[in-house]
Write a structure and sequence with these properties.
This protein is an alpha+beta fold and about 170 residues long. The chain is built from 1 helix and 10 strands; from the N terminus they run αββββββββββ. About 15% of the residues lie in helices and about 40% in strands. It has a 10-stranded mixed beta sheet, with no helix packed on it.
Length: about 170
């Protein structure tokens, strides 16, 4: 009996892991019915950025304060045009470093405007490149608008005379 116990425990553990992955996987890596493209060159540290979906609808994303500090409260603002979103979330991921799960649900302010507060985790790099995915939950499915920006350690920010490097 004891010879069968360990293989059964291992099989049970494997089954639980597979079920957990099936349930959690779509939340970590949502499948989008449409992905927006950025309109022109945009730097979130200078102001709102805009993207357009293949159907012509638009989304605008803004982060305040503009210098986008880590481990401080950030005000997130999303404005939609031509999209009837029931829920809007912003998912922050490190472009080249796993920074864990960091997703914020925004509150509707009416007329296609959503706002909320978020926070980026601390990073030891002088410059960290992030992707903020604006996730728009609609009747047609999930629409996604990715935006890239950089954060800097205090004292490591580029001066106004220096061009910023990285994807923004």
């Amino acid at each position: 009996m004891s010879r069968l116990l360990w293989p059964l425990v291992a099989l049970l553990f494997l089954a639980v892991a597979v079920v957990a992955w099936i349930k959690v996987g779509p939340m970590l890596n949502p499948e989008a019915v449409a992905i927006a493209s950025p309109i022109g060159s945009c730097k979130l540290r200078k102001g709102p950025c805009n993207s357009v979906f293949p159907n012509g609808s638009r989304v605008s994303f803004e982060i305040r304060p503009r210098h986008i500090p880590a481990v401080e409260r950030l005000k997130l603002l999303v404005r939609t045009q031509g999209i009837d979103a029931q829920q809007v979330e912003v998912d922050f991921t490190g472009v080249d470093m796993n920074m864990g799960f960091n997703r914020v649900t925004l509150d509707s302010s009416g007329a296609g405007t959503f706002a909320g507060n978020g926070m980026l985790p601390v990073c030891v790099r002088a410059r960290m490149t992030w992707e903020a995915k604006v996730l728009l939950h609609t009747d047609a499915g999930l629409m996604m608008a990715p935006f890239h920006f950089d954060t800097y350690l205090p004292g490591k920010e580029p001066s106004a005379a220096e061009p910023e490097v990285g994807v923004e």
